[in-house]
Structure formats: structure tokens, C-alpha cells
Amino acid sequence: MAYSEGYLRGEVTLLHQPFRNDLANRRRTTLLLFYLAALLSVIANSLVGRILPLRTPLLALAVVGAGAAILFLLRFLRSNDEHERQINYRALTFAFIGTLVFSAAIGFLQSFGFHPVSWLGIPSFMIILWSIGLILYSWRYR
Question: Is the pTM higher than 0.70?
Fold first, then answer.
């Protein structure tokens, strides 16, 4: 840590820390790769029933995409410090409660003849809510 002349007045000046910028860029890239892998998996899985000759390769692509998304998510979560873990915890809690309410509402509405939601709808909704939670709680704690 480098100190300036303002140290006598209680001010501290820190040198530029390039490792923080590199870490932030790697975390952003990992999160972007997570979203792209999840999107690839969802698209491949939705095309399985429409393009029957390519069913097996599309299923394999969906599984590989889902596996890559899981690995990128774990890499992102492990790179967090204590403050970011708190933000992630709150975002995941927000997503879990939102998905639970959504699932209960859909189940209730299906008893009245509402169209059922695809099994891909629930995890996709949870990822969307987690993303919204990350944005909201990162703004709140800055």
C-alpha cells in the first residue's frame, strides 16, 4: 500500500491494483459463458422434438451444454469473496422463493385448466430470477 502526503490528514491513497480488474474480467467472462452454455442447452433441447433425424446429436449437445453451464457456475461461485458470496446467497434465496411461488401458482392454475409449463420453464425462470437478484442485491450493497 502506498501512502500519499494526505496520510497526515487521515487520507490514504492506494496504488492501482490490476489484479482486481483481471479478476473482475474473468468473473464476468465466466458468468457470460455460463449464460451462453445454458442458452445452448435450452435451444438444443427444444429442437430435439422438431428435428428428428438429429435427435441424438442434439440431445448430446444439450447434455454437454448443461454440464458446461454447471461447471461455469461453480467456477463463478468459487471465485467470490465474502461480500460477493453474501450477494449470491441473497440472489439465490430470491430465486428459490420466486420459483417456489411460481411453481405453486402454476400448479394451482392447472387445476382450473391452465396450460402446463414445460419442464425447461422452471430452471429457466430460476436463472432469470437469480440474475435479477444479482442485479438488485449488488446495487443494494454498493
Answer: no
